[in-house]
Amino acid sequence: MDVLSEVNAVVFGVWFLIGAALVFFIQAGFAMVEAGFTRAKNTGNILMKNLMDFCIGCVVFILIGFSFLLGEDLFGLIGKPGLDIFTAYEGFDFSNFVFNLVFCATTATIVSGAMAERTKFLSYCVYSAIISALIYPIEAHWIWGGGWLAQIGFHDFAGSCAIHMVGGTCALIGAKILGPRIGKFSYANDGSITKVNAIPGHNIAIGCLGCFILWFGWYGFNGAACTDVYQLGSVFLTTTVAPSIATVVCMIFTWIRYGKPDVSMCLNASLAGLVAITAPCDVTDCFGAIVIGIVAGLLVCFGVWLLDYKLHIDDPVGAVAVHFMNGIWGTIAVGLFATPSAPSYAIADANGTLMKGLFYGGGFKLLGIQLLGLLSVMSWAAVTITVTFIFIKKVFGLRVSREEELIGLDSCEHGLSSAYAGFSIMDATSQIMDINDKTELGSGEASVVKETPIVEVKDYSSKKVSGMHKVTIITRLSKYDKLRQALNDLGVTGMTVTQVMGCGIQKGSGEKYRGVELDATLLPKVQIDVVVSTIPVDVLIDTVKKTLYTGHIGDGKIFVYDVEKVVKVRTGEEDFKALQDVE
Q: What confidence tens digit (pLDDT) does each residue in 363-387 have?
């Protein structure tokens, strides 16, 4: 038996490190999900942040984070600071350092998704370091380092509370303080929000790949701390069942609610199920995992709706719905579904008395402890991250400028014209044309199939027509929204928007790639084409000039062409009638 025990200890010691490597690979999953769910112009910035989460986290974890987490317990609140990694390396706990480091980096990474596409890179590095150095290690000590929550029987096997709820809390507060992306919400004149606009991610395939990487890595996330094969097998089972059920429930819900199963929401649901099962994965059975998954699949849909339509907080990747809400649910689920039938079950109170979940005859004791721990950790995270963000906002500034956000953080923060060589992609899908008192629309319903080939239109014979002209405007990406609004106010009802790149004789701004100066930087531009008839072309040109003028290189150019003929294919109308925007 001694030999078998020794072999078992060695095997699971190796598995512990393999599990840590799987958790490290989760960083790649987060990078892919965040990049895919955001716009192409910010991809390089997203990748850089996910890389620096781990690297900066490693630096501060060496200096103070690890000792705060697993140092000698002081009053149940914090580990004793120390530098044993330098002063006593021969007896240092190498495995635990690596294992806890990769978990620490995950907490910081969660925040980047909710604050993506508008956060200063310097500011991001600062708050990522503070999360890894102070916020996460101290509360994790309460749970896993022998602190006061561990002493009273609080259970969070792999981090629904310590990692995901904490990361989600930081993400929620950060996104609120930072404010929404430009174009996420439409506003009335009094500042009230009138509409929520979708800003689709640029690459759902990368987002899906990231989801699969995360799910794969989660077997290490939940299973690495297992100490025997039976417990490991049970954890793998619950870690598979919960996200599967959550995804199916989300698919059915979105199919019924929106008429079609939503791809991105189902990807979020898989992650929500994983987050929810993380705390109770070792103490629940298959039935518990199923119920946990059902709630997670619905909760993530509710969370996305709540942030968009009620709280008006912009979370590009659904980090709050996935991590904050399901981190809470997973922590509570321990108090509901913990059952001694799970292998190696060992939840006990301060007196060593075994505790069970409410639905398995254990009463409210364990549930009460879970709620106490949840509220305590949430309060700690909320207070410390709020102070952190306010400090960063005052000292460094938290958000990039409007122009930088519109151009994209790849270019402005990293000198990278595009993460996809040869392309520079700007998203304009959230900007719409509005009907106003100068808008002329023909009659008819474009959504209804007509029996006759020609739809009835208004009689414009009495209106003076100055001729048909195509006006092409090429200008900075950052000017698009302002120009669109000005043309809309003038009465323009439609435009063609093209993303282009170009440089003049000044060769752009001389950026560098891998330390080598680029001979000519192709700068991202936007080309807007408008065809007008009733609006005098001189008035249109004057409006464009007033809107774009700054007196600097890059204000743009206007090209005017005569249009000989216009044909509307659907109705057969020609020239002036074809330009009336029934559809």
A: 999 999 999 999 999 999 999 999 9
